[in-house]
Here is the input.
Amino acid sequence: MAAALQVLGAIGILVPFAANQFGRMTTDSYTYLWLNMIGSGLLAVLAAADEQWGFLLLEGVWTAVSAWGLVSRRIRPRGRRPDQHSPTTA
Here is the structure.
C-alpha cells in the first residue's frame, strides 16, 4: 500500500512538472500548485512514517512552498506577477 501511495505522490509532482516543460501548464496555475502540494504532502507523510529525515525535509519544504504559492496566487490578481507594479492613476 505504501508503495502505491509513493507512486501516486510522485505522479502528483511529475505530471505538472512535465506539463510545464511542454508548455501545457504554468507554474503559477492552481492545478500545478495543488498537484504539487498534494503529491509532495503525501510523500512527506510517508517519509515521516519511515523516519526518512532528508526526504521529509525535501518534501516538507516542497509542500510549504506549494502552499505559499497557492496563498500568493489567491491574493494577487491573475496575470500580475509579484515583481510587476500596478499602474498609477493621476
Residues 2-75 form one domain. The helical segments are 2-21, 30-49, 53-75. The CA atoms of residues 19 and 25 lie 5 Å apart. DSSP finds three helices and no strands in the chain.
